[in-house]
C-alpha cells in the first residue's frame, strides 16, 4: 500500500476514518473528504495534517461541482488516484406510506449521486493506470426493513453501480467491489437509535439476538477487508460482494 493514493469520502468517522488511519500507517497517501469545514481538533487524523501524505478537502458531494473539485484537488496534490472508497451515506427511518420527497432525495443524493459523479471524474484517471473502487453496501439492499425504503433502494443502486464498473472497466485494469456491512455500532447508527429511544447497550443486546455470531459487527471487523480490496493482493477480485455480517443476511 506504500505510496498508493486513496480517496475516501465520508472519511472523518467510523469505518472511513479507521480505514484512512490504517492506510496512512501503511505509507499510503490519503485524501479524505467530508462536510466539515475543518477536521475536529480531537480527530486522530489531525496529526497527519502537516504531513505530505494527507489532504483533507471539505466538499458537499451532493453538488456535482464539488465532486469534480475533490478529484481535481487530489490530482493536483498527488498526481494520481489508485483507490476510491465511498463510505459517505445517510439513512432516515421513514416507511413508504410516510416517505417525503425531501427524505428520498437526500438519501439518493448522498448515497448514489455522490458516488456516480465522483467516479465520473475518477475513472478517466484510473483508465490510464488502473485502480480499485470499494463501495459500501448494506443488507437492506435485499428489500430492507419496513421503515428504510429509500435507503434500501439506494443500496440496491450502489450494488448495480459496482457491478456496472466491474464489468465495463476491467479492460482498463479497474476493479470495483462492494462490502455489505452488517449491523455495526457506528456513530450514525448509535445516534439514530438514540433518537428512537434505544441506548447503545440496548442496541447491542437487540442485535445479538438476531446475528448468528451473537454480536454486532465492529469497525475493526470491516477495515481489513477494505485494505485487502484496495491493495494489489486483490488484483483479480472484481464484481464481488463481500458480506461482513456475522452470518446475518447470507
Q: Which features does this protein show?
A:
250 residues, alpha/beta, Rossmann fold, seven-stranded parallel sheet, 7 strands, 16% strand
Describe this structure in words.
With 250 residues, the protein is α/β, with parallel strands linked by helices. The protein has 2 domains: 5-182 and 217-243, Rossmann fold (3-Layer(aba) Sandwich), CATH 3.40.50.720; 188-216, no CATH class. Helices cover 43% and strands 16% of the residues. The protein contains 7 helices and 7 strands. Helix 1 (14-25) links the parallel strand 1 (5-9) and strand 2 (29-34). Helix 1 packs across helix 7 (219-230) and helix 3 runs parallel beside helix 4 (149-169). The protein is globular and about 45 Å long. It starts with a strand and ends in a 6-residue tail after the last strand. The model has no long low-confidence stretch (mean pLDDT 94).
Amino acid at each position: 500500500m506504500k505510496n498508493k493514493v486513496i480517496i475516501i469520502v465520508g472519511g472523518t468517522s467510523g469505518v472511513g476514518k479507521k480505514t484512512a488511519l490504517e492506510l496512512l500507517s501503511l505509507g499510503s497517501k490519503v485524501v479524505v473528504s467530508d462536510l466539515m469545514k475543518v477536521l475536529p481538533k480531537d480527530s486522530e487524523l489531525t496529526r497527519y495534517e502537516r504531513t505530505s501524505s494527507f489532504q483533507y478537502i471539505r466538499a458537499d458531494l451532493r453538488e456535482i461541482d464539488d465532486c469534480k473539485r475533490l478529484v481535481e484537488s487530489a490530482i493536483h496534490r498527488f498526481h494520481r488516484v489508485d483507490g476510491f472508497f465511498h463510505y459517505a451515506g445517510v439513512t432516515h427511518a421513514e416507511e413508504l406510506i410516510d416517505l417525503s420527497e425531501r427524505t428520498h432525495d437526500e438519501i439518493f443524493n448522498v448515497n448514489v449521486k455522490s458516488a456516480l459523479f465522483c467516479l465520473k471524474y475518477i475513472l478517466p484517471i484510473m483508465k490510464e493506470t488502473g485502480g480499485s473502487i470499494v463501495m459500501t453496501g448494506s443488507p437492506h439492499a435485499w428489500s430492507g426493513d419496513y421503515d428504510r425504503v429509500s435507503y434500501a433502494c439506494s443500496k440496491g443502486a450502489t450494488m448495480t453501480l459496482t457491478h456496472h464498473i466491474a464489468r465495463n472497466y476491467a479492460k482498463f485494469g479497474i476493479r470495483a467491489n462492494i462490502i455489505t456491512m452488517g449491523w455495526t455500532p457506528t456513530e450514525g447508527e448509535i445516534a439514530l437509535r438514540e433518537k428512537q429511544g434505544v441506548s447503545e447497550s440496548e442496541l447491542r443486546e437487540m442485535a445479538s439476538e438476531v446475528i448468528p455470531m451473537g454480536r454486532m459487527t465492529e469497525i475493526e471487523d470491516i477495515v481489513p477487508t477494505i485494505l485487502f480490496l484496495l491493495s494489489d493482493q486483490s488484483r483479480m477480485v472484481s464484481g464481488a460482494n463481500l458480506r461482513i455480517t456475522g452470518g446475518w443476511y447470507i
